Amino acid sequence: MADIAHDPASASATVCLWFDGEAEAAAHFYAATFPDSAMGSIQRASADFPGGKEGDVLVVTLKICGLSFLLLNGGPAFRPNESFSLQIHTDTQEETDRLWTAITGFGGQESACGWCKDRWGYSWQITPRALTRGMADPDPAAAKRVMEAMMTMGKIDIAAIESARRG
Questions:
Q1: CATH architecture of 85-166
Q2: pLDDT per residue over 74-126, tens digit each?
Q3: What share of the chain is helix, strand, coil (3-state, %, to 5)?
Q4: Rounded to an integer, what distance in angstroms lies between the CA atom of residue 70 and that of residue 30?
């Protein structure tokens, strides 16, 4: 893994996710679940802080699908909500199914239109590229059929999306 995964200060941008004491567990899960992902550094608090005590895990760095993340154990003050989500693009139904099952099967929950939530409350969009292509089809009728098909789904069914696109 590139050094940038281990040193977010050298990255041009880093996404920070707020956790209540479970940043390390989340980082291990994300690194094991998503492709092109790896753990970086674990920094412990040098003093007591509102969300914990000296020596507790404060920050974990990692890459998820090649993007730099910093997971912060900031305490209970803020909770994730659907206004922020991470979209993961998939190429096959097997990949879509694996990611969906990993997220929802590890204490998460299913939602609609390819969205699901992990056990920490972060929303993920497991989005097959076939859906993205279908929604952008230059034929408005095909794009409409794809949109209508997607609106009936939780986890995206690529074969159903492709069938709807063809009409």
A1: Roll (3.10)
A2: 999 999 999 999 999 999 999 999 999 999 999 999 999 999 999 999 999 99
A3: 35, 30, 40
A4: 12
Residues near 85 by beta carbon (within 8 Å), at least 6 away in sequence: 115, 122, 123, 124, 125
Distance in angstroms (rounded) separating the CA atoms of residues 110 and 2: 33
3-state secondary structure of 48: coil
Query: Would you mind telling me the total number of residues written for the chain in this entry?
Result: 167
Q: How is residue 130 written in tokens?
A: 């076939």
Whose tokens are 């993961």? That residue is: 88
Question: Would you identify the CATH topology of the domain 3-73?
Answer: 2,3-Dihydroxybiphenyl 1,2-Dioxygenase; domain 1 (3.10.180)
Place of tokens 């209508």: 148
